[in-house]
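note to self — DONT lose this again. spent like an hour looking for the file last time. sequence + predicted structure for the chain T wanted, 525 res
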Amino acid sequence: MNPFRHGPRGPLSLQARLMAAVTGFVSLILVVIAIATSVVLGNVLNGRLQDELATASKSLARSAAASAFISHTVPSASSLWEGQTGVPTGTLVMVLSDTGSVTGSYVSPDRVAQDLNGTQMRQIVTALNQGRYDEEIGGLGSYQLAHQAVAIPGDTPHSVEVITGLPRASVEAQITTLFSMIALTTIGGLILLALSTAITIRLALRPLREVAATANRVANQPLDRGDVSITERVPAAEADPRTETGLVGAALNTLLDHVDASLAVRQRNEERMRQFVADASHELRTPLSSIRGYSELSLRALSTSTAPEDPATASAHTALERIQAQSLRMTRLVEDLLLLARLEEGRELSLSTVDLSRLAIEGVEDARPTAPDHVWTIDVPAEPVELIGDTGRLQQVVANLVANARTHTPAGTRITVEVAVDGEDAVLRVRDDGPGIDPQVRDELFSRFARGDRSRNRATGGSGLGLSITKAIVEGHGGTISVQSEPGETVFTVRLPRMPHAASAPDDDRAAEGGHEIGRAIGGR
């Protein structure tokens, strides 16, 4: 694999695409205008040079004709400068007669007529014979050429060719200067265009960025539970429905208003439901206690009966035992519902210093007699792992997770309870090498009345509230609980802050009030 190979790039932002489109389109127009301007100005300058060359050629041809008319001889090239005024520096003239004589002269930079050498004159003649009227002449540079025929009167009439040339250096210098100015102007204009476009587009898209920022702030709020109110809104200046971007902001504000109202309705319904569960659970405790008490009295009376072997007595004894067992189970369920409702209301936490290592060790020791066919191990650090929390509630967390692992794994399964410190957190892990959790129920594992085996078998299935209570206790301490499972390994991980951000000092009165032991192993995988 090539280590320098870059992965695929992500899509360009809207701002980048708009800048590229606007700048590219305007750049194309400016480049076309610059090229067209350069071509037009070049043609204008070349046309002016052609006009000057035509004027100079006619003037020198007239001088040659006048000299030949007077002397009836072929004039020399240098003689043609006589009487000429305003001749540009570098202008050249050649006279070719039909008798074969050739002379040539040019105006030097110091305004003195200088003769052309043979090589230069041959270059000029060769170029004209080949139809070229612009030629690079050695020692002189690039020239534009023209020629005219002049008749010489006399006893033997003949003719001469007067060749005139003007240097192209000044024209080419002007064209280069103009092209450079146009190029610099175009580049400067493109830079200013890019900057102004970037600023304009950035200002135009600012409402969209504000919409995105508002949406992100709302997304970061915990909206899944509790009393939630969405106060974030797109500012009114960025939510003007008269503009396209403002229309998006106004639509988001409308959506947030609707969601906020829906959350308020949900919260009221949840509060009513929790209150109903708490009230119902509280009211059911008394009749359930009465049922359990009367069943115990009846069993005691039957035990002292004079005819214990009577079939009717035995049947009544069995029925009363079932009534007592089911009333106990109903009592535990009611207690769990009441506890869960109170935990969700944020009550029932008595804070003190808790040794999580000790709770883990006690949880394993309590579980060994109930499941001797499992392999139990404990892994805790040498130093106590202490945190601020509710001892009774955290003991219930350990008991629930241990019971959950014990109940839903076959004999011979190794169950390991681990305690560790990770930064500012205390970590509790309950690990087993059992068959794992069905992926279809993993997402709802911490919901109320969830069961990992979908079974209604009371021998293995619990009430389905154990993990819900565990999650409520952990979150009440500001912690998190998660599960990872695959065939051969299931790990429940509890992370608790050792010093909660909003933790208050341990309250002795609350500790005394809430220190009673209600932790029971209510597994519900």
